Amino acid sequence: MVHCTNCQYTFKTKEVLTVGFSKHGKACPNCGVKQYISKDSQHYLSLGYVSLLFVLILPFVIKLSDKEETIW
Fold first, then answer.
1. Contact at 8 Å (CB) between 25 and 35?
2. pLDDT of 31-43, one tens digit each?
3. DSSP state, residue 37
4. Were both Cys, which of 11, 22, 54, 64 would link to 15 (CB 3.0–4.6 Å)?
């Protein structure tokens, strides 16, 4: 599962989905440090694999970063 880069808090599936579809990141519920989707995870999301299967495995594939990164 997805962990906070600061405190190693394990995000719940619903929280991962909100981070995944948020443009400006989401604060960790445990320590408050803003977490963003990593550059690699953004790349996977931009490929257009938006299917039911991908949404189901999203919490296991996504990685977080404490810095806002762009794909390009």
1. yes
2. 999 998 888 777 7
3. E
4. 11
